[in-house]
From TrEMBL, chains A, B:
<dbReference type="Pfam" id="PF09278">
    <property type="entry name" value="MerR-DNA-bind"/>
</dbReference>
<keyword id="KW-0963">Cytoplasm</keyword>
<dbReference type="InterPro" id="IPR015358">
    <property type="entry name" value="Tscrpt_reg_MerR_DNA-bd"/>
</dbReference>
<dbReference type="InterPro" id="IPR047057">
    <property type="entry name" value="MerR_fam"/>
</dbReference>
<keyword id="KW-0804">Transcription</keyword>
<keyword id="KW-0238">DNA-binding</keyword>
<dbReference type="GO" id="GO:0005737">
    <property type="term" value="C:cytoplasm"/>
</dbReference>
<dbReference type="GO" id="GO:0005507">
    <property type="term" value="F:copper ion binding"/>
</dbReference>
<dbReference type="InterPro" id="IPR011789">
    <property type="entry name" value="CueR"/>
</dbReference>
<dbReference type="GO" id="GO:0003700">
    <property type="term" value="F:DNA-binding transcription factor activity"/>
</dbReference>
<dbReference type="GO" id="GO:0003677">
    <property type="term" value="F:DNA binding"/>
</dbReference>
<dbReference type="InterPro" id="IPR009061">
    <property type="entry name" value="DNA-bd_dom_put_sf"/>
</dbReference>
<protein>
    <submittedName>
        <fullName>Transcriptional regulator</fullName>
    </submittedName>
</protein>
<dbReference type="InterPro" id="IPR000551">
    <property type="entry name" value="MerR-type_HTH_dom"/>
</dbReference>
<feature type="domain" description="HTH merR-type">
    <location>
        <begin position="1"/>
        <end position="68"/>
    </location>
</feature>
<dbReference type="GO" id="GO:0045893">
    <property type="term" value="P:positive regulation of DNA-templated transcription"/>
</dbReference>
<dbReference type="Pfam" id="PF00376">
    <property type="entry name" value="MerR"/>
</dbReference>
Length: 133, 133
DNA sequence: CTTGACCTTCCCGTGACTGGAACCCCTATC
DNA sequence: GATAGGGGTTCCAGTCACGGGAAGGTCAAG
């Protein structure tokens, strides 16, 4: 199938598929006219990649997952390790965003938000670490 | 003061400060030898920027906040609007990460994680949208 | 024969920096 | 005066994962 069908099958944009070939994630064969010719296996790989990326795995993680997927003798422990590391990273991001949300929410709450120029958000942003203004 | 002192005062790397000058966030004067010469006001602005960036505001948001901060007649409503939009974005990110975390956590939980090759994580990642394998 | 949809490669731009090369300036020491 | 070091400066390239768009080849239909 041509790239557009592979795109439709996997849900990835054609540009992204070309990029994935460029960095060696997939290797579709070429037709005589130079067009990429995707097999069902290629389309399946692309779907796999789309899902893994959708779960937030970095490209290099996806490469590793793909290799594990293609390796019939892989140990599930390898996969689990990768997934757990990723889970930890997600937890860190959530924690950071939550803390950040709390700070900002506090600032917003204290801002009267009318026409008066006195604004605690800006005042706080301007506050020096040592307390000097 | 020289760039290193400005960096120490604001907590930003010197490279970042040069970048901020390049994109017009700050405009330190130059000494005769061509060195940047940061005033106290410059250092204060850099601290402001460091804090705003630390709260996750994009550079262009920081530019707007800085302008509001420098505008003595600004309305706090403007600032609040910016901050609330940012808060919404943070909430969206947290929601997305939380959903993603749930999916991945479920996969990890179901993975026995031993030497057996059978791994639900990879199986799920490979699953086609229509259910075909 | 032309139109239009599709494909190809190539290059530039994104955001917010970071690293490094090549070179200038200033002070201190021998 | 030479040298060493620790500043500073500019410019270029790279990051991550693509997206936009130009210039041009290919194919099926009318």
């Amino acid at each position: 199938m041509n790239i557009k069908d592979a795109a439709a099958a996997s849900g990835l944009p054609a540009k992204t598929i070309r990029y994935y070939e460029e960095i060696g994630l997939i290797r579709p064969v070429r037709s005589e006219n130079g067009y990429r010719d995707f097999s069902e296996a290629d389309a399946h790989k692309l779907t796999f990649l789309a899902r893994a990326r959708g779960l937030g795995f970095a490209i290099e993680d996806c490469r590793a997952l793909l290799a594990l997927w293609e390796d019939r003798d892989r140990a599930s422990a390898d996969v689990k390790r990768l997934a757990e590391a990723h889970l930890d990273e997600i937890d860190r991001k959530i924690a950071q965003l939550t803390g950040l949300r709390a700070s900002l929410s506090d600032l917003v709450r204290r801002c009267h938000g009318d026409g008066r120029p006195d604004c605690p958000i800006l005042t706080d942003l301007a506050r020096m670490g040592t307390g000097a203004s």
